[in-house]
Amino acid sequence: MGRWPLAAFVLCALVLVCVTWQVAAGGPLLRADVRAAGVLRTSAMPDGPAELLADLGNVPVALSVLAVAAGYAAWRARRARIARWWAGPAAAALLLLVTLLLVVAMKALIGRPGPPGPVGGTGFYPSGHAATSAAAYGAAVLLLLPWTRGRTARRGLVTGCLLVVVGTGYGLVRRGYHWPLDVLGSWSLCGALLVLVALCVPGSGGRTGRRDTDGPPDPPVG
């Protein structure tokens, strides 16, 4: 693991530990969380668009996007005769499964009550929708980056992903489905896991993988 991936992993892990500790222990950060939720819930966006943003974290939607990206990345990697062409898509699928399992376990262990709104009960930390969107769309971008030509296109792909993930989190808080810290906890969890996935995707910052000896060179991405 290089310096930057390691730094990103450590940062995400520290944020996750800090936020989880504050939520579980009822720390002072919860007061700021309540205030932030109040500001976001009274923002100008109408309910309809906010609901659509929140729905981007639904498993069927996010899983469909990841499946298309994984299939395309696997096809391109196999055409390029990369030895472990299946490693990236397999890591992305495993990421989504591990993310969902960890979220379910943390919800059960912490049992945080939800904000006043359409959904009651406990088990709101971390947000499953925010985690699903961050894991699925983030992994999709990691799979597509090596096969995206041009710096502008790659930046656009990353920027679009960030906007979708942030928009999903905003929609969840705006509609009263989650507290802001629920979303932040999910983002930090998925950020750490995405660093590990990047190590398995050729050309995304981890190992590039070795081509078969009789295969053509890797396609240019610049």
Describe this entry's structure for a reader:
By secondary structure, the protein is mainly alpha-helical. It has one domain (3-198). Helices cover 68% and strands 0% of the residues. It has eight helices and no strands. Mean pLDDT is 90; it is low at 206-222. Keywords: Membrane, Transmembrane, Transmembrane helix.
Question: Can you give me a brief rundown of this structure?
Answer:
InterPro entries: PAP2/HPO (IPR000326), PAP2/HPO_sf (IPR036938). It is built from eight helices and no strands.
Low-confidence stretches: 206-222
Q: What gross morphology would you assign?
A: globular
Radius of gyration: 19 Å
State the distance separating the first and last CA atoms. 23 Å
Strand content: under 5%
- Mean pLDDT rating: 90
Topology as H/E string? HHHHHHHH
Sheet with the most strands, sense and barrel status: none
Structural class: mainly alpha
Our count of domains comes out at: 1
Helical residue percent band: 55-70%
Helix segment tally: 8
Say how many strands there are: 0
Topology diagram in text:
Elements: H1 3-25, H2 29-41, H3 47-55, H4 59-79, H5 87-110, H6 128-144, H7 151-174, H8 180-198
Helix pairs in contact: 1-8, 3-7, 4-5, 4-6, 5-6, 5-8, 6-7, 6-8
